[in-house]
Amino acid sequence: MRIGITCYPTYGGSGIVATELGLELANRGHEVHFITYANPIRLDPGTKHIHYHEVEVSNYPLFQYPPYCLALASRMSEVAEAQQLDLLHVHYAIPHSIAAMLARQMMAPIRRVPFITTLHGTDITLVGVDPSYFPITKFSIEQSDGITSISQSLKQETVEVFGIKNEIRVINNFVNCRLYKPAEEREAGEKVLLHISNFRPVKRVNDCIRILHEVRKHTPARLWMAGDGPDRSPAERLARELGVDQYVEFLGKQDHVERLIPRAHVLLLPSENESFGLAALEGMACQVPPVATRVGGLPELVTHGVDGYLEAVGDIEAQAARVVELLTGDALHARISSAARNTAMTRFDTRLVIPQYINYYEDILARQ
Ligand code: GMT
């Protein structure tokens, strides 16, 4: 197939899923055309069957807000025509879905190019429900030829909040368990807690600092904070206030988290909401058990007490207690981390999930 993929190409779970999906499809011989405003991170431009088409947004002084959605729609239709694309697959509804709908309309006199929208989370739970975006988000989802959601929980929320009646196919986040794998040996020294995110309020990064502060009352530990975003400075400040700053390293944005994760002992994900929790899955594949919150799609991934732990949002004591159990109980840590890898391999490996996307593409094309 010839597939056009659009996503947010910088840091963020939806862009990572879209990029990894494109790479996996290309590996299987499909032609993949990324139509984005920048080369997606994790994408090596020289990869066979992968093409990149930049969306340029010209800025005329009259425009207070450059119309990115229109530039994207134009580029999508141009690429669809020139490259004979079979379908467009957009990740994150706003504004990619509406741009794809316009591109489909522009292409209509020549041929029908269907589009699939994959819902990732904050496009529904935060941004999409904002009154200024609600009607257009609902409309563009309903206009999609196919809709996928990364978890059952997000599907349910989309139906409840937007009243969507179209079929929504659940296709979970995935991980390449050959790339994301345990370290042969972990480094000696203080045990490491790891958090990876875009440091947005929904991630509750300050909770990671508070958890470390609590954990250190019982056992030595360090915290690595990977990523960047608006809540990094408040977290740095909190670490100083609680006197744990010498045990916290802010690593900034990381291109190769598969090299970083296996060096940690526990993955912290104290989010307010998490439609799936890709970082938790990547941790599990590397035998780094997650201590996360019981929200959104996380219970579909993590079985509490079996392959990780789930506690209430904001319950620092409970989350810290789980971390202490894992750091001080070697047998427990070994049991939970091996179950975590098993979950990643048997339910969420690319070999199982990518064919679900391919089957879905075939279904949608057969319906045209
Ligand atoms: O975590 C974010 O806010 C980024 C966001 C995105 O769309 O880039 O992540 C969402 O998509 C990921 C990949 O599908 C999911 O694993 C995350 O759970 C989801 N984030 C939230 O729901 C907060």
The CATH architecture term of the largest domain is 3-Layer(aba) Sandwich
Structural class, from secondary structure content?
alpha/beta
Q: Largest sheet, described in full?
A: 7 strands, parallel
The counted number of beta strands is 13
**CA(first)-CA(last) distance:** 15 Å
H-E string: EHEEHEHEHHEHEEHEHEHEHEHEHHH
Q: Quick one: CATH superfamily of the largest domain?
A: Glycogen Phosphorylase B
In the CATH hierarchy, the third-tier topology of the largest domain is known as Rossmann fold
Distinct ligand kinds = ligand GMT
Q: What is the CATH class of the largest domain?
A: Alpha Beta
Rounded to an integer, what's the Rg over CA atoms?
21 Å
Strand order of the largest sheet: 3-2-1-4-5-6-7
Strand percent estimate: 15-25%
